[in-house]
Amino acid sequence: MQIAGIICEYNPLHKGHEKQLTLAKSLLGQDAAVVCLMSGNFVQRGYPAIVDKSLRAKAAVACGADLVLELPITACLSSAEGFAARGVEILSRLCTHLCFGAETAQPEEIMETAQVLNSPAFPPVLREHLQKGLSFPAARQAALEALGASAHLLTKPNNILGVEYCKAILSQSSPLIPLPIHRPGDYHAAAPHPENPSATALRLRMESAGDWQPFVPEKAREILAQGRLHTRASGEKAMLYRLRTMTEEEFSALPYGSEGLWRKLMHAARRESTLEEILTAVKSKRYTRSRLDRMVMCAFLGLTEETLSQPVPYVRVLAFNETGRQILRQQKGNFPLCHAGEPMEHPYWALETRAQDLYGLFAQDGPEPPGLEKKRRIIYTP
After folding, report:
1. Per-residue pLDDT tens over the stretch 64-85
2. Which of 52, 53, 160, 275 could be 40's S-S partner, Cβ–Cβ 3.0 to 4.6 Å?
3. How many helices (H) and strands (E) does the chain have?
């Protein structure tokens, strides 16, 4: 069986995502399956997911996915490189292809860029440009151009992730075959396109009680409408409490805090009033805002640099249909899977449970009770 793997967030799932699910199966044949490796309740940009992971997984199966697994939280809050590497590592054991949206859906061009980024010649040239004070994205762009490679791919967000996926495939000698699909529309657009909306635009509408349903597949509307909305603004006071009570040792252990960035964050947290003021005080040309957002969320969740680098003991199953059940049966005993509601005596289980309890503090209409992770059940759609 041909199996397309998709590393995703579905935050929230929209019509463009449904198109990708449909195209993945049509490109690989009628009997192909799709496995989605989806971020849980925290996403790569360092924010809480707008709706709980169980509902997002259920919506994915309703719109064409056969099996939805949870991307470990330590991967979700990693850089684009770490996010892609963990995703490829997991899906390489389950899938034949890796399907992803890209503004430039040319697998050869994406793979060529990835090869240059992985080459021994790249790091010293990158360091040279970083030493000039450029941000990492700008330095990477300049280094590619200096090596005679095309850098235009890395000006678009989906292309950037696509290149990271291919870098991981190459570095891990993964058997996954890249399957890019053209992603039209503006990834960051604040106004939703009728057929190719951005998740950013839909989140803005959901948060402001606007009409988001026309831009979501009909099969997913009722599912997502059941969910309580979660926003970072709703949990800001809890985040500020954590930042204001952290010790210097705890700040120094944070991920992304190299070159004294952790110290700058510590001083800002002890001086500024709001989260936005803290992040603005720390922001510079050298460090992207998304890096700072992830750093602050890791601080809130108690994730250190050491935590993010540790291997995860299992991957959690969130939802599946009958085809997904067959895939699970084939992998039984060969792949570490954890079903919902199955407690484990393991530090990673404790980490997940703590993260779920803290996610409840971001609920827009008031905090959720702790302990929901222990009550979670797998979703099966016949």
Report:
1. 999 999 999 999 999 999 999 9
2. 53
3. 19, 8
